[in-house]
Design a protein that fits this description.
The protein has 676 residues and is mainly beta.
């Protein structure tokens, strides 16, 4: 409280109160100067009347309204009765919110907010009167005015205003901090964030958040308790990563503001990339395949090779991924490799030196075929440009389990163009006998006479090229668990298998799906498929032991294979609950024919339990299978009562604390009858 003081003529200067760093200081101003008071200090005016008319007898500044003048005059030149005092202040209330205004005293007191009366205790009384008002003050600047009059008797007055900070009362967020700025010292790796002081009267402090550039995941830094300063400093790892900082204000009720403007810091990069862990394997045609750990963004890899561990390493090239093929690696020799990882900042990391003994060049065997005149079998293989061009071809009778591969006398020749990246060679075995199936492999021979390991084995022969007859008698039965196909047994004596296909358009081979390969004697197949009123074409193709079939020969099944058009049942539930649960439900039949359900629960999933429902088609409703909810952390459920020979639809619900349910999408489960 600041009672007025008498001043001498020599010190006839008005006393002006100002705030500096939150403390009250006094500064002298010429008597003729108008009195100004720095917010939140009140400007106080003394009047020699109770109507606040005329020129105030005295004007000064008052930081606290809490006066007790007794029966005396409040200031020199004023009467002891019938005087008035007016206090006023305009200040920034920040985000505003719930406030409490409290006034008490002898005699009359009135309190105004932006000119609107909020407290009215305007009467001459011999006892102290008091009143407290709770109200919400909007954000921004507002003016408080307190009028006090003393008619007779003792004079005292007190007024306070303060934010209400209980969390149950104050739900107003503070204003976001302004003036955010950040600096970064590459030498120390320290980032310093500064901001302007917040205007909130109930400010508890500030929280600082940081996120990696390119992500939206803010993480709080600077400890658990709110910061009470307007700056924050931390040391960042020198990885070259870029981060955004923002600061948020927190009030005493725990409300947190939105973030300030994001401020970017890019750290200096002194961190070496991951050290490559090198491995190698041989591709007989392409070269030595070198691999290391997964490639890292903005890191390149220099690949080197030497003829000896301590020899001169020659750079083969640069890789921008995690692998490279050395197409010039010598066959039959040991090469030494290393990889140097280099990031954009010039940091490097070198792998271990890896020794790799490349075997002799093994040709890649293609599928042999009968030559155009059907007088021999043409064997073909592919090599690399660095491989030898001398080869040996071996053959044996596939039907003879004791046959020993023997070298075939045939002259190899170049196939294709000389400019082909991977040269292809071949030779024709004119000594092959009809109706005999042979196995072939080929080797390469280098200039030193060393013979490579054999290529993979390929089989061919001058054999039957007539496909078996088309399948007949194909029928279908639509069921609640899919489509059942049946057909006549094919009479071909060399029948090897049946291939079952499904398509949406018989003329469009892109829609073909291969469903199964079945052995001879099997003339029934069930396509376990959710019946949902789709239309399918099914066809069955017969294949003989020489891999001949009408379908592969001619390509269009409607003219060469049995086919049927099927329109499925439609077992889709009559209605589906709105999909409001944060989960994806999946289901499948287990080995026992029971429906096994599984689901997840993402971040922010606050539930008390899970219910499971199954669609009852007869009753046209969902039947709950769980008498009580499953545990909140349950992630699966097996329905031991799943009906067989039909398709069942399931849905789950997440149960909230108030008992309400949020539902997943539908998940069908198909269970065939026992033995089908």
């Amino acid at each position: 409280m600041n009672p007025p003081r008498r001043t001498t003529a020599a010190a006839a200067a008005a006393v002006v109160l100002a705030t500096a760093g939150g403390l009250l200081t006094a500064s002298a101003a010429p008597a003729s100067a108008a009195t100004t008071c720095t917010s939140p200090v009140f400007k106080r005016q003394f009047f020699a009347n109770t109507t606040f008319s005329g020129t105030p007898k005295k004007t000064d500044c008052d930081s606290v309204i809490d006066q007790n003048w007794g029966t005396g005059a409040p200031a020199s030149g004023l009467p002891s009765n019938y005087f008035g005092v007016r206090w006023s202040v305009t200040r920034d209330f920040g985000s505003g919110g719930p406030f409490s205004l409290a006034a008490s005293g002898l005699d009359g007191i009135r309190v105004y907010l932006d000119g609107t009366r909020k407290i009215d205790l305007w009467k001459n009384t011999s006892t102290t009167v008091a009143k407290t008002v709770n109200l919400t003050i909007p954000s921004g600047s507002h003016t408080l005015r307190v009028d006090y009059v003393n008619w007779t008797g003792s004079a005292k007055v007190k007024f306070t205003y303060a934010p209400r900070t209980a969390a149950t009362v104050d739900t107003v967020k503070p204003l976001a901090p302004t003036g955010a700025a950040v600096t970064y010292d590459p030498a120390t790796g320290k980032a310093k964030l500064t901001w302007a002081k917040n205007k909130e009267m109930d400010l508890a402090g500030y929280r600082v958040y940081r996120r990696l550039k390119g992500t939206g995941d803010y993480r709080r830094v600077g400890g658990f308790d709110p910061l009470t300063t307007t700056s924050f400093t931390e040391t960042l790892a020198p990885t070259g990563a870029a981060y955004y900082y923002e600061v948020r204000a927190v009030d005493k009720a725990g409300n947190e503001s939105t973030g300030s403007a994001d401020k970017l810091v890019t750290t200096v990069d002194r961190t070496a990339p991951l050290t490559p862990v090198l491995s190698a394997s041989d591709d007989p045609v392409r070269g030595v395949s070198l691999d290391w750990q997964d490639d890292t963004y903005d890191v390149t890899y220099d690949v080197y090779r030497a003829a000896a561990a301590d020899g001169e390493f020659v750079k083969l090239g640069i890789s921008y991924g995690s692998s490279r093929v050395d197409e010039t690696a010598p066959y039959g020799d040991t090469s030494y490799y290393k990889v140097v990882a280099k990031d954009a900042a010039g940091n490097t990391a070198t792998s271990q030196v890896l020794a790799f003994a490349r075997p002799l060049a093994v040709p890649f065997m293609d599928t042999p075929r009968t030559n155009d005149a059907e007088t021999g079998i043409e064997v073909r293989w592919t090599t690399s440009k660095a491989a030898p061009t001398s080869f040996r071809v071996y053959r044996w009778d596939q039907s003879d389990p004791n046959a020993v591969p023997a070298r075939v006398t045939c002259e190899s020749y170049r196939v294709g163009n000389e400019a082909d990246y991977y040269p292809q060679y071949g030779c024709t075995d004119f000594s092959a006998e009809r109706r005999t199936s042979y196995g072939y492999y080929v080797t390469s021979v280098d200039s030193a006479g060393r013979e490579s390991a054999p290529s993979r084995t390929a089989y061919a022969g001058l054999v039957d090229t007539t496909p078996p007859p088309a399948v007949t008698g194909l029928t279908h039965t639509s069921t609640e668990y899919g489509t059942v196909l049946e057909w006549d047994e094919n009479p071909a004596p060399d029948l090897e298998s049946y291939n079952v296909f499904r398509a949406t358009d018989l003329r469009d081979t892109a829609t073909y799906e291969h469903l199964a390969t079945l052995q001879p004697g099997t003339t029934r197949f069930t396509d376990l498929n959710v019946p949902n009123d789709e239309n399918w074409f099914y066809f069955v193709d017969s294949v003989d032991t020489s891999h001949n079939s009408l379908y592969t020969l001619r390509g269009y099944p409607e003219s060469v294979s049995a086919n049927v058009s099927v329109n499925e049942f439609d077992l889709t539930p009559g209605y589906t609950p709105p999909n409001t649960a944060a989960t994806n439900l999946s289901a499948q039949a287990d080995e026992s024919g029971h429906a096994a359900l599984s689901w997840g629960c993402g971040s922010g999933c606050a539930i008390t339990g899970v219910h499971v429902y199954r669609w009852d088609r007869a009753a046209q409703q969902y039947v709950r299978l769980t008498d009580v909810p499953l545990a909140a952390d349950a992630r699966g459920y097996t329905d031991a009562t799943t009906p067989a020979g039909t398709t069942s639809y399931y849905v789950i619900s997440f149960v909230a604390a108030d008992g309400s349910e949020a539902y997943s999408g539908l998940a069908p489960v198909v269970v065939a009858p026992s033995g089908d």
